[in-house]
Design a protein that fits this description.
- With 232 residues, the chain is of the alpha+beta class.
- Helix content is 35%, strand content 33%.
- It has helices at residues 2-26, 62-75, 80-83, 116-128, 144-169, and strands at residues 29-40, 44-52, 84-86, 96-99, 102-113, 134-140, 173-188, 218-231.
- The strands form two sheets. Strands 2, 3, 4, 5 and 6 form a five-stranded antiparallel β-sheet that branches.
- The radius of gyration is 29 Å and the shape is rod-shaped.
Length: 232
């Protein structure tokens, strides 16, 4: 009896699911999709700065290098507490190597900047201080999530406009949405530069004004599809 009861319950569940699917398929509907995108200028530029004591052949200590770097950055209005962090201890560079009786010390920092002009000035000033082992790690956009949300709204509105246009061509009307699918988003950005960043200006120049250039823009793309009920 228990087995029979269980079988009847399962059969009822399957029948209910089948009926719901059948009811959805039996309704006249129109399916459409939309893809929208936009370009934004990066407002988060991440630099990796590597200080290696052995680069200076014992003439300057790591502590002195770090202090000089801090002075240069403060002079450019950089908030060290907010914008400068020491890289994870798991970093390839954050190690101490033992060579005979000498300890070779190095330290890696991550610096976040907010525009291309400040980035150029930082590179120039650090180069003047003899700190040139710098990498562009990545660029990003701070308000990425809110931007994705606004693109989703635009995309679903576009599916409705497209659906209404196609329904009108058939002499029918577009009803309410039966099913909506967020097909995700894509972010297209220039590949991070892993090599050392080089300067176009001479580091021993007394004055340096960065060109009004920007990093490559980031393209964000969102795709949404929807099924709308068709009316006569």
């Amino acid at each position: 009896m228990k087995k029979l009861g269980l079988m009847l319950v399962l059969a009822g569940m399957l029948q209910t699911g089948f009926s719901q699917t059948k009811n959805f398929i039996d309704q006249p509907y129109l399916e459409t999709s939309a893809e929208v995108d936009t370009l934004v200028t990066p407002n988060r530029i991440y630099l990796g700065i590597r200080l290696l004591e052995s680069d200076y052949k014992g003439r300057i200590s790591l502590e002195t290098l770090e202090r000089q770097m801090g002075d240069k950055l403060r002079g450019l209005g950089i908030d060290l507490e907010k914008q400068l962090t020491v890289s994870d201890l798991g970093s390839d560079f954050q190690k101490y190597f033992l060579r005979k009786e000498d300890i070779v010390k190095e330290k890696v920092f991550e610096l976040v900047l907010y525009d291309a002009q400040t980035t150029a000035r930082v590179l120039y000033e650090l180069e003047k201080a003899g700190i040139s082992n710098i990498q562009l790690l990545k660029t990003d956009y701070e308000d990425m999530e809110s931007l994705k949300d606004s693109l989703r709204v635009r995309a679903i509105q576009q599916t409705k406009r497209q659906g209404a246009l196609m329904a009108q061509a058939l002499g029918q009307s577009l009803g309410s949405a039966l099913h909506i699918t967020d097909r995700g988003f894509s972010v297209f950005n220039a590949a991070p530069v892993r090599g050392a960043v080089r300067l176009s200006a001479e580091a021993d120049s007394d004055q340096y004004t960065p060109l009004p250039a920007e990093f490559d823009k980031i393209r964000i793309q969102v795709t949404v599809s929807a099924k709308f009920k068709l009316g006569q």
